[in-house]
Amino acid sequence: MEQLLALFRIPELRRRILITFGLLLLYRLGFQIPLPGINLEVVKTAAEQRISGGLAGLFGIMNAFTGAGIGSATLFSLGVMPYISASIIFSLLVKVVPALEALSKEGGAGQKKISQYTRLATIPICILQAIFVLYGVIRNPQFGLTTGSTSILYSLSIILSLTAGTMFIMWLGEKISEHGLGNGVSVIIMCGIISMIPTAVQQFLEMSENAHQMAVTLSAIWIVTVLVVVYITRGQRRIPIQQAKLTRGRKVMGGSRHYLPLRVNQAGVMPIIFASALFIVPSVASGIPGLGWLQDVFGQAGFMFMMAKIGLIFFFSFFWVRLMFQPEEIANNLKEYGSFIPGIRPGKATSAYLSFVLDRVTLAGSAFLAAIAVLPDLLTSNLNVHPTIGYFLGGTSILIVVGVALDVVDKLNSHLLMRNYEGFMKAGGSGWARRKG
Length: 437
Known about the structure:
- The chain is built from 20 helices and five strands.
- The chain is 69% helix and 6% strand.
- The chain has two domains: 12-195, Preprotein translocase SecY subunit (Orthogonal Bundle), CATH 1.10.3370; 196-437, Preprotein translocase SecY subunit (Orthogonal Bundle), CATH 1.10.3370.10.
- Strands 4-1-5 form a three-stranded antiparallel beta sheet. Strands 2-3 form a two-stranded antiparallel ribbon.
- It is globular and about 85 Å long.
- By secondary structure, it is mainly α.
- β2 (245-248) and β3 (251-254) form a beta hairpin.
């Protein structure tokens, strides 16, 4: 309680906390503004049915594609996923396009230009997804969502509304990053996930009334899962780095020793996102005559579904880590700045050693991601757990929430430690790491 009260004793930190909560409140208010001409009763009925086919099934596929709440048919239905998609695209392009790679190495000015390109790329992605929503769901006569005209002006109003909603969310995220706490876009995504907690708690309480033993089991699984996610997220493989000594006159410079940290979960949630996106293809292709068997094989949590998902997660984990962390570049940088790994020759030997260690660490991280990703599917299929409850027991949701929460705690600790406070968490965060060092 003393550390919690210390957060509000610092004027700057208090202001950042209030700004963050205020902007998140604006974000949640956008989900209360319906799109024009939408039959909200039909949307509510589809959301309550929670079936695998029909409108609710299509909403589920679209939500996985957009990372938002398409089924709510509100102003912020597209969410922040178009911006995330643009960011992922430019993260890949920076590694494969020489001009962008050179731009990224120009420091703050180059990163500012890439951020501007990402914002501009978000607009066409928003328009494409809005068109998909408009013609795939809203104007589909099978679902009967519209209550009024379906003219060109009405279609343009829907597209512009959805695009403007996403751009406003992107602006909120930038303001949170600038004036609030943590990465704004990540905090907004976490807020969207946490907003589903009341529904999950309601489903959990209803299940507890009928199956007390199952409720205790799920509670234990959730606690263990969170602890494991925190442990792996914080886990690092530290490679010792020795700086060469330089003698200038009577003064000896350098010679310090530090570490190159390789996180166990170096890829984050990206492999799960890529793997989940690919599973949209069988669901869509199953509607083609003669390909209905794809839905039977990959549309449920069976053996083939699990093996395919695990295989894709391992593949994308190695792909993403190898793309973002290049041992040859790290080895050249160490050699250029006069640093080396004790016992390893600079140059190719250092690159080979880093590649060997990185593969072992990535293998462990891939196994962890695969276990977290398939956990909700195992619970919902084998234990008949409600999908809303399983959503919080694994997958991208728990990884994002834990990762963003730890990042926010680190930001709070840094503000407190700069002002000689003990820290928000005595046994965790940057303060703990500093005392251990």
